[in-house]
Amino acid sequence: MGLVQEVVAPSGEMVRRKPRYGDHCWDGEVWRRWSGRHWARARYSLHPEQLFSSTRIDDHPTIDPKRGRHALARAVGDQVASNDAIVVYDGPSGVVLAYQHPVSHLFHAVMTVITAGLWGVVWFVVALRQREDRVRFDIDPWGNVWATPVPAACADALEAELALLAEEVGR
Known about the structure:
Layout: E1 5-8, E2 14-17, E3 24-26, E4 31-34, E5 39-40, E6 44-45, H1 48-51, H2 65-83, E7 86-91, E8 94-100, H3 105-114, H4 119-128, E9 132-139, E10 144-149, H5 152-170
Antiparallel strand pairs: 1-2, 3-4, 4-5, 6-10, 7-8, 8-9, 9-10
């Protein structure tokens, strides 16, 4: 976790403490939000000039929730189109996206030939355990879309919850 510093809490008050999820901080150039791991920049904003203004982020006017949902959809659409993201979950608190890491089959094929087939075991395991990173996109009341890494345990719980929902819908 970060050092003790002056942050704008989600409630809007300025406090001096270790950052917590949702806190905002002006770094002298741009507003950032604590993601739980690090200070992150907004991925998208309806009013990008607000992010580069030293005026406290919560001093700006809030946006209509319907307009915010539209901005979130635009940011998600951009990630799907340009970064091959996959929408895993779309709910009231945000959208969870998955970014898959492709397996280099050419590399593994060459290694399998060089090692006379021994590398094939590694290739098989790697292909079965394809990695993916999951990120939750949510929008704040001022129209800024923020990305938060989703830990693997949360992603597994989310998949289990989705499977239960699918069963209930199927009944």
